[in-house]
Each structure stands twice: as structure tokens, then as C-alpha cells.
Amino acid sequence: MKYDFDKQIERRGTNSYKWDLPEEGVIPMWVADMDFETAPCIIEALKKRVEHGVFGYTLVPDSYYEAITNWFKRRHNWEIDRSWILYTSGVVPALTASLQALTMQGEKVLIQTPAYNCFFTSIKNCGCEVTETALKREGNSFVMDFDDFERKCADPKVTVFVLCNPHNPSGRVWKKEELLRINSICERNGVKIISDEIHCELIMPEYTFTPFASVSDECRDNSIILNSPSKSFNIAGLQIANIICSNQPLRRRIDRALNINEVCDVNPFGVIALQEAYNNGEDWLNELNQYLYDNYKALKDFFTEYLPKLEVIRLEGTYLVWIDISRIELTADEAAKKLLDNAKVKINSGTMYGRKEGFCYLRINIACTRANLMEGLKRMGRELCVYMEDDDEHGCPM
């Protein structure tokens, strides 16, 4: 590999939310950021900008829009008109502004559970009611329950559906035919779609990400797309994201919401980092995805050998692995607490993403060095191997 993803970076003492929030000695495998240095081209461009020494208000240049449109055309065969793009500080502020533009207080917003936890809070903060349609377990993956989805969309109070593509936390990368069916149901019922596509570049081999708005003209015109290089290039702290909306009247309303919420300005480092990521970071991203895939395979092999009662849900996209623990006598909350208190490993209980749908699941962040991954897994194995005792073929990792 050209890039060294095994390099250990000391993150404690840097005000890292991921590392400095847990106590000393805890391996953090929870919040969704990566432990890798970002692409060297981004680091060099930021160094050059710092050397200038003046950090005033930032104008977003034409080259910013060109970087976005060229990237999505080249990598995803999606033609984006520059005028469709609105920039902001993050995908969650983008979601809130889009909801404010699309909904009135008291209306319902539909999500698929388990769902990214900020969906719940953003919807409630906009004065709307959360309506849930649960994904269906099928083998070691999840599919959409289209019958229930259509029933929920038929409720006249449901005016918006928030899609997560790829899906966090199940790890699904939705297929084109699934996206077409979603839009068909939503259009019939007058439901607009907001698609959170922040994980769109983190795709496992053999899977292909399809931007929702690229599927058809109808999908494009009925949707608002939220994306950012923050997850893929580990630059979330630089706070840059984009809203892509082809519908001009709707786009004007979103722009107004961004200004009302005062999240319409961005910092110079985010603007530079996005351009470097999209213009010069593709080879780094490709190697990152291979490293993450190898981490995923290592995790699967570990669970097969030492924790066979815990089922690893197939990972198609993201670096967040969804684990089914229903065959042991612990709830997700109990397991997460035991792992933190006794094994000093911090992971997410599935109940964060829906109390019913996440009751027997854990979410593990594998975007770390192989050494940290294996140490975290060994700690987990030593704590949970007691629940494998009726299977004599499997022992505890040392």
C-alpha cells in the first residue's frame, strides 16, 4: 500500500470527542470518526493555508463547485448542476434546514429504524413527529418492508421521508431498484425525500453506491441530497457539507432556513479540504476502503472463532459493523456497559438507533489501526466468552 493506515496516531490529549471522553485506558470503538491521518494532499494544502496566517471571512470559489461536480460525475456518474449546491457546516445542520423548509410543525417525518440517532432529534427539534418503519431482517442483512413503508407514507400527516444511503447502522448499500420503488411510493403519496449520503464513499468490494438523485429525473426532482467528504476523508472537525437540490423554489426555502439558523457560512479549512479530497484524494480513498474491508474480514474471523453466538451483519458500506447478540442472555445496553466497565472497550448499544429495533444489537466502529482493532476485539472476547461456554470448540482469546 502507498499509504500507512497501520500508523498509530496519539489522539488522547487533543480534545478528541472519541478518545478524550472515555477514561484513560479505554479503547474507543464508538463514535463515527476514524483514527487515520487524512489524505496527505489535504494535510499539505492546509499547511500552506495556515502559513498565510490570516483567517478572515471566507468566500467559496468556483473551484469548490467544480470539485464537487467533477467528483460525482467521475466517481458516481451523477451530473450535478452547480446551481443546485448549497454549502453549510455539516450534514446534521443540513438535515434540520431541509426539514424546516419542507415541513410545518405537527407534521410527521418517516424514518427507517434502526436509524442514525440524530434523525430523531432533528425531527423533534423541528416540531415534527417521528414515524418509524422498521427494516426487516433477512439472513444476515436487512431489507425494506415496502408494505409497511407504503402504509406509513399513506398517512396524510407524513410529508417527508429521511433516507440513509448507505444505511447507518445496518451497513446496507441500497440498490437502484430499491431507490426507484421508494420514490414511486413517496410520489404517489406526496412525500418528499431527504437522502443522507454522508457515507457514500465508504463502500465494500462488490457493492456499488447509487446517489438517490441519479436514479431518474423523478428521483432527482423529488429529493434533497445531503453529502460531505467528512466521513470518507476523516475531516469532520473542519465542518463542511453540501445540500444538493434541483428544485429551485424548494432550494430557496432551504437557503432561507440556512440563513435563519446561521449555518450559511463555512471556514477556509473546510473549503480547501473538500477541494483537495475531491480533486486529489481518490487513490487514498481507494486504499482506505481496502484497509477497512480487511478490518471487517478480521473482525468476522475473530467472531467466528471466539464469539460464534454473536452474528456479524453483512457490511456493504460504512465502517460501522452491526452485531446481533440475541443468542446470549444480555441486552445491548447490558453488553455495552459490561464491555466498558470490565473490558475497557467503548462501543454503541443498538438502542441508540431505536429502542425496539436495536435492543439486541451492538454497533462497532472498525475505522482504526489493525492493532487497535484486534486489541479491542480480544478484550471483548475475554469479557463475553463466558456466554460461549456451551460450545467446547471455542475458547477465550488470550
UniProtKB/TrEMBL annotation:
Transmembrane stretches, start-end: none
Protein EC: 4.4.1.13
Cofactor(s) it depends on: pyridoxal 5'-phosphate
Superkingdom in the source lineage: Bacteria
tRNA processing as UniProt keyword: no
Entry keyword set: Aminotransferase, Lyase, Pyridoxal phosphate, Transferase
Domain Aminotransferase class I/classII large: 29-379
Gene Ontology molecular function terms on file: transaminase activity
Gene3D superfamilies reported in the protein's UniProt record: Aspartate Aminotransferase, domain 1 (3.90.1150.10), Type I PLP-dependent aspartate aminotransferase-like (Major domain) (3.40.640.10)
Family to which this protein belongs: Belongs to the class-II pyridoxal-phosphate-dependent aminotransferase family. MalY/PatB cystathionine beta-lyase subfamily.
Protein name: cysteine-S-conjugate beta-lyase
Organism: Prevotella herbatica
